[in-house]
Amino acid sequence: MHAEVLVSLALRQVDKVFHYNVPPSLAGKVQVGSRVLVPFGRRKVEGYVVGFSPAPNPADLKDVAALLDEGPLFTPHQLALARWMAAYYLCPTVKALRAMFWPLLQVKGPKKVRGLWPAACCEVPDPRRAPKSAAVWQVIQARPGLSRKELAEAAGVSPRVVDAMVARGLLRSEERIESRDPCQDLPEKRIKPPVLHGEQIRAVSKIIEALDQKGGRQVFLLHGVTGSGKTEVYLHAISAALARGKQAMMLVPEIALTPQMIDIFRGRFGRQVAVLHSRLSDGERYDEYQRLRTGEAGVVLGARSAIFAPLEQPGLIILDEEHEPSYKQEESPRYHARTVALRLAGYAGAVVVLGSATPSMESYCQAVGGGAYHLLELTRRVGELPLPSVRLVDLRRELQEGNKGMFSRDLREAIARRLSRREQVILFLNRRGYSTLVVCRECGLVLKCPHCDISLTYHVSGRLRCHYCNYSVLAPSLCPGCGSRHVAYLGMGTQKVEQEIRRLFPTARVLRLDSDTVGRRGAHREIIDTFREGEADILIGTQMVAKGLDIPGVTLVGVINADISLYMPDFRASERTFQLLTQVAGRSGRGEQGGEVLIQTYSPDHYAVTCAQNHDYQGFYRREMALRRTLGYPPFTHLARLLVTGRVEKEVQEAADFLAQAVHAAGVPVELLGPAPAPLTRIKDRYRWHLVLKASVQSVLREAATAALDGFSGTGRYRRVQVSVDIAPQSMM
Ligand code: ADP
Ligand code: ZN
Ligand code: ZN
Fold first, then answer.
1. Ligand 1 pocket, 532 CB below 6 A?
2. Residue 121 clears pLDDT 80, i.e. is over it
3. Ligand nearest to the CA of 440
4. Does ligand 1 have an atom closer than 6 angstroms to the CB of 385?
5. What pLDDT band is residue 728 in, cutting at 50, 70 and 90?
6. Residue 588: CB within 6 Å of ligand 1?
7. For 466, left (φ over 0), alpha (ψ -120 to 50), or beta?
8. At what angle do helices 259-269 and 230-243 cross, to 10 degrees?
9. Residue nearest to atom 17 of ligand 1 (CA)
10. Tens of pLDDT, residues 352-365
11. Which of 106, 288, 498, 522 has the most CB within a 10 Å radius?
12. What is the DSSP letter of 688?
């Protein structure tokens, strides 16, 4: 038998297994999942062992040169998943595999520290003759493993006393593994689960039934209005999975992975939960991976990439807010965590629960009318609380009546009323910064990023920033085009809202939550805790305030402008707007005082807005599906997008034309839209063109895209142009 190795070059051309001979020195040590060094061409490259089989040409095999780590880097499920991802998303297998095991390679290993232990048999120090040693002795009996410094400090003696005891053999020094626990400063208070209400019981028992069934994957769509207690359903389902010796995964969107959420899980499952998100240090992530690999932790709570966590036997996979666009990774491998979860569950025979108050069109249509998913519904809020009443404010009329400010009279009054009653307010605007458009009133020049075709946002720091590449520059006092002093700051962001609120309500205590205020570690938690504890009256923010927050004191949610997402050049613009409005509205009225929502909009008749107003998911679904059917968009068709980028626009355009011809030449039944410049025409100095392929069967898309890519790498003509394929794209920008 010879080792099948994938070499670690992320190129489509070498994405196949190569056979190597395992030399006697490594026999028995090289296994599936091993990272090895192998000769490849004239150099040595890293590779991963994915199997063993007899090579077709055993005579000219080369030897595996070295074994790079001890244990395997990936599980059999992960390997199967990576292979499927490579075929499905047209990416190199090693790229998909690396997305799974990279945390294991970021640090050398577990963190080891020196600790001290009491020696097994020795004379106990006498408290009268050696009071200091006796104090140390007492501490180390109670807390063995402390470091020299910790021990001296705890005993209130100089470290030299400790050193002397080590020298006399009273204490022995040993290395121990210290776990880098991302939650160690959180109190681990066990929380007793509440008694489930009727709809929750029905949902949980259906899921448990599925967990108890032998056989293939089962998928549930849990459609529950905001505040209906979906999280509690997940928690019970996870308990049930653990009780059956199965492991569970719980995925949430990165910004919904709040400290509150982590507290809830730790409170219920203690150290059985491993937490994975982008703010962990490499060491913390490594240790969480180890705890999962060894089985010490059986529950993963994490964002998108936690779907790749190394669970031996996942039995339950939950995606909360399954409709969230952030489940799609926007760089290679361009996977969607929901699609991957469904596939992984297929391999593992696991139960999948997709939850949302506003399910994606793709998922909901699978759960109704004979689709493959089971629909579970939570139609009411916990405790029979009503959904908040939603009022629309027509900004056109507001302007006609002479109000040019960012707040309508209604919204101002509503805020004032809450402040006088000591209730809390959330204000939502999905744009950060102060002013989103800086333009010269004399010559019309719009200040844009020199690297992107994007207007710069003014921040209160006095700088202009590009929100795509982070370029920043001091705001000029004169127009760089004509020297005029009349530079206008138009368009508003959360900073401007904050300033205006402070001007209108000078005594209100105001907090802002957006990616500019949560830079420091722990800042996110502080802001939310302060608000939850009632130490602030108004919370202003971007999407970060729209998701997950469960704060009973909030009786008013104000949407400053509902139209921002509505007119994006993207066929999902209405869906995104409906979802966002429903989510943010759902933050209001979670306490006994009830709640209200005010949505300011220039489009009060748009169905995305009116359906959100009426809490009418079904109505929205029907309207949106009818439109998608007419226009031939998903879920009625499948899409793929080829994005072409490069520094020279002419080359990009020519390459895009070439790809279009290659698609035509492939002779498969796809519809081709474009090539055309992408809505974001230039980012980070690269021009962007795209082609959108549409087909009724997804495999046809891959056929066409593969043909185009093969033709493209075959010509060798556009060496400075990059092409990326996006199967089932979530963003058309
Ligand atoms: P959703 O995720 O559906 O918006 P949550 O899971 O945030 O709703 O639940 C809303 C609130 O109701 C939370 O504070 C939760 O702790 C509480 N809750 C959930 N189920 C119950 C129950 N059966 N009894 C009492 N409180 C509950
Ligand atoms: Zn000017
Ligand atoms: Zn830029």
1. no
2. no
3. 2
4. no
5. very high
6. no
7. beta
8. 30
9. 229
10. 999 999 999 999 99
11. 288
12. E
Q: Is 122 annotated as a binding residue?
A: no
Backbone angles phi, psi at 626, to 5 degrees: -60, -40
Tell me what the mean pLDDT of segment 367-373 comes to: 90
Which region among 69-83, 116-130, 143-157, 537-551 has the lowest average model confidence (pLDDT)?
116-130
Q: Does any ligand 1 atom lie closer than 6 A to the CB of residue 194?
A: yes
Tell me how far apart the alpha carbons of residues 569 and 692 are, in angstroms, rounded to a whole number.
Answer: 14
**pLDDT reported for residue 110:** 73
Distance 519 CA to ligand 3 centre (A): 20
Q: How many CB atoms lie within 10 A of CB 432?
A: 22
pLDDT digits (tens, 9 = 90+) for 393-406: 999 999 899 888 89
* Closest listed ligand to the CA of 551: 1
Question: For strand 374-378 and strand 218-224, is the pairing parallel, antiparallel, or unpaired?
Answer: parallel
- Could you tell me which of 12, 1, 207 has the C-alpha nearest to residue 90? 12
Distance (angstroms) between ligand 3 centre and the Cα of 456 equals 8
Q: Could you tell me the distance, in angstroms and rounded to a whole number, from the CA of residue 516 to the centre of ligand 2? A: 29
Residues 206-231: what's their mean pLDDT? 94
What average pLDDT score do residues 264-287 get? 90
**In order of start, what are the domains of the chain with their CATH numbers?**
2-105 (3.40.1440.60), 111-178 (no CATH), 198-384 (3.40.50.300), 389-434+492-628 (3.40.50.300), 638-727 (3.30.70.600)
Is the pLDDT at 8 greater than 60? The verdict is yes
- Answer yes or no: is 91 a known binding residue: no
CA gap 726, 6 in Å, rounded = 23
Reply yes or no on whether the pLDDT at 188 is more than 60. Answer: no
The conformation of residue 632, written as its DSSP 8-state character, comes to T
Is 479 marked within a binding site? Answer: yes
Closest atom, ligand 1, to C-alpha of 225 = 3
Alpha-carbon distance of 446 to 463, in angstroms, equals: 15
pTM over 0.85: yes
Q: Is the CB of 283 under 6 A from ligand 1?
A: no
Ligand number, closest to the Cα atom of 201: 1
196 lines ligand 1 (CB under 6 A): yes
Instruction: Consult the annotation and say whether 469 binds a ligand.
Output: yes
DSSP string, 175-243: EEEE---TTTTS-----PPPPPPHHHHHHHHHHHHHHHS-SS-EEEEEEE-TTS-HHHHHHHHHHHHHH
